[in-house]
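discrete fold record:
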Amino acid sequence: MKKVEKLRVAVKKAKLIAFDLDGTLLNTIDDLAYACNHTLEVSGYPTRSLDEVRRFVGNGIPKLIERALPASVSEEEFAKLVEIFNEYYAEHLWDYSVEYDGISELIEEFRIQGKTLMVLTNKNEVLAKEIVQHFYPEIFVKVLGDNPEKTLKPDPSYYYEALEELQISPEETILIGDSDTDVKTAVNSGAYGIGAEWGYRNAEVLAENGADIIIENPRKLLELLRESNCTDAYC
């Protein structure tokens, strides 16, 4: 069966769609880079380029800071750096962040098809909820993020807990994300994984880590969804 046909089967079967946040729903890289470089600069470390920060994101804020540092630091200093980042970023969550072209239409198409929508991110959960509520008020039933009591992607445990609460099996879900972490989460959970090539990782990385299909932009995915749910409006 061709990949596009498998996508259509997965869409018809799916009850829930889980989106990654950074690099999938929103292009947040400028705000993340400013927060990262503010943290480094006020702490006496060299700053990083936008391309470097783009490579560092995907595994949560602490991992971003760890990758941005030129050398390891004490646990106490590291905790302070994360605190500086979070304090600055909380005041600049969407200064430059923008939605990817076609995402709103894609979300609406999933809603037309009766899908439940969720956000699954490694961003600090409190901050993620603020961002999602700002850009997408009352759209997503859950926003799961970095939480001291939960594990991060690609461990699917937190995802499983949410699905159990919603009485949906992982095999009835689709996970859309732009990173190796996202597609690994899909593989680990048993969800169908769509690699979002429009984000921060390229198609090769997404393929190597197990994406079921790789889509170049949201409008292409929207086109395929409408074909799979052919109605008089689109056919």
In short: The two ends are 23 Å apart (CA to CA). Confidence is low (pLDDT under 50) at residues 231-235.
